[in-house]
Amino acid sequence: MNRRPGLSARLKLTISYAGFLLLAGAVLLAVVWGSLLRYVPDNEQGLLGISPNRYLLVRMFTPAAVTAVTFLLLFGVLGGWILAGRMLAPLTRIADAARLAASGSLSHRIRLAGPGDEFRELADVVDTMLEKLESHLGEQQRFAANASHELRTPLAISQAILDVARNDPTYDRDELIDRLRTVNTRSIDLTEALLLLSRSDRRNFTREPVDLSLIAEEAAETLLPLAEERRLTLDVTGEPVHAAGSAALLLRMVTNLVQNAIVHNLPDGGTVTVHTERRRYASALRVENTGRVLRPELIPTLTEPFQRGTERARTDEHAGVGLGLAIVHSIVRAHDGTLDLAPRPGGGLVATVRLPASR
User: Fold this and answer.
1) Quick one: angle between helices 118-167 and 52-102, nearest 10?
2) Of 294, 283, 315, which Cα lies nearest the Cα of 215?
3) What was the pLDDT predicted at 150?
4) Residue 274: its H or E element
5) Model's pTM, two decimal places?
6) In a 3-state reduction of DSSP, which class is residue 339?
């Protein structure tokens, strides 16, 4: 924004300090002058109607007063300039950090030393903001790189299939169509997942009361055939709990959690439990499943895009596109809730979602 030039904050503080000091000096001189007049008699009329004693007092006091006022003015300007510079030095460091951030460098930190005051609080807030911006930018760059890779993979596969079919006249046409359909379906799923992730991040949805227990039952009913195919037990327990949000997004959140619990489970005889309950000022949904023992350091990475958490083969038709828990985390965050992931001692994962309760 273009602004007309004005006085700097340091100069304004200097003028204010010097003016205040000059005013205080003038008031002090007026008090001294009034006190002196009380002790100097005015009983004789002299030159210009003023007694000789008071005329002499005026001649002695005026040069001293002028000298004092001049000294106060110079001292006020010089002292005010130095003090203002020292006071505004933290703002200069903060402004320099902001300029570096505006130029694209987010690694710089102010790290203002000294006791806690308004400048220190402002510097800490800017440092926190820069740290979050740097983290968010790094996350977005990794996401863009991973998304580009994931989107390029099915296109490369389709290109390879078409090249083979063109160079081989005996290539089975039905097999070609089936393989292209599979690759195209994966591309569509990935694109829809990316769009859903972007939509939940923007929070452009209407909030309404949603019963999480009904959402859990609907998601479980939809995925029950998949659980039966893998010979897993799928249970839904708990009580009706309500949260404010988008029913479609919350259904996708629960569906992703349950599907993740089914896919990442034991080969046979595993369990998946979905439980809803009321907690203080919150509605909670917990999805717990059996499965492999997860390393603790792996848990924080599960909500990152394109992190699948296990060495499952890409040929699994239910393997997803690596955005399941990332979408869950984004939806929970858009609803001002929290997502906690914890490994089960015997193997598997416990995912707990807490959302603000709907009145």
Assistant:
1) 20
2) 283
3) 67
4) strand 271-279
5) 0.59
6) strand
Instruction: Quote the CA–CA distance of 60 and 75 in Å, as a whole number.
Output: 23
Q: Which two tokens stand for residue 196?
A: 């859903």
> How does pLDDT run across 77-130, given as a tens digit for each residue?
999 899 888 888 888 888 888 888 888 888 888 888 877 788 888 889 999 998
CB burial readout 174-204, b (16+ within 10 A) else e: eeeeebbeebeebbeebeebbebbebbeeee
C-alpha 302/C-alpha 264 separation (Å) is 12
- In a shared domain, residues 213 and 189: no
Contacts of 43 (CB under 8 A, 6+ apart): 51
Q: Are residues 352 and 219 in the same domain?
A: yes
Q: Which domain holds residue 247?
A: 208-356
Same domain, 162 and 31: no
Give residue for tokens 């489970």: 265
The verdict on residue 155 lying in a domain is yes
Tokens of 83: 């003090």
* Type of residue found at 279: R
| pLDDT of 33 | 85
Burial class (CB in 10 A: 0-12, 13-18, 19+), 120: middle
Same domain, 246 and 342: yes
SS3 at position 285: strand
Q: Clarify whether residues 335 and 274 are in a common domain.
A: yes
**Same-domain check for residues 269 and 349:** yes
In this prediction, residue 312 carries a pLDDT of 39
3-state helix, strand, coil in the chain (%, to 5): 60, 15, 25
Number of domains the chain contains:
3
